[in-house]
Amino acid sequence: MSSSPDIAGILDNTKELDRLRKEQEEVLVEINKMHKKLQATPEIVEKPGDISLSKLKNLYIQAKELSESEVTVSNILLTQLDSLLPSGPTGQQRRKLVAEGNEQKRKRMKVDTDVTRVSPSMRNQIEAYASLKGEQVAARVTAEDAEKDEWFVVKVIHFDRETKEVEVLDEEPGDDEEGGGQRTYKLSMSCILPFPKRNDPSSTQEFIPGKHVLAVYPGTTALYKATVISTPRKVSCFSRTISDSFQQCIRNQ
After folding, report:
1. End-to-end CA distance of the chain, in Å?
2. pTM of the model
């Protein structure tokens, strides 16, 4: 008979736990809506009187408070259950398990919100870079002792979707004092410029006189800055033009 109040308290706390979890799900939905809104119209935050960022901050604060309340109620429930159960894991062990479960849940919530931050165009770009494995690309590399960036023709050997880093191999042996073996680099996506596909002539651009380009030194994988002087009537090359700021590169004819 003396255990009836404890059971009633357990039932009340389980209802409270359900309520907290439902509220967390509702807040997460609102957070995702705000992420989509800011991705679609990022300029809205610059408008006078806009409170989008403040609203998003308040939603995160609310989500944090609900998560902490869930942990508190869960610990109370564990204590109440410990008083009714004759044996088994200790209350401290159960609390540890619940805490681990809540931590995993928070991580899942973070992953869900992170996914919404990736725009469709970025997802397409990630897929495009992931498909470059085994292909040659132009890469901008900054050596530790170099005063400026250097460009090379390299081979893609791996793309990390999480870090968005491209691992490439310079297939030309180096001539340094450390043996001159092939070198690998891990570079950001912005340092990689894919070449047009060999089977897609439509992607090859014209090289008009005066165009700034990067061209490959004959017989090497090194690229250098150059300016187009003239072009033959028919050009068949595995190349890509670059803008005046040298953000795209080509291989020499």
Report:
1. 92
2. 0.42
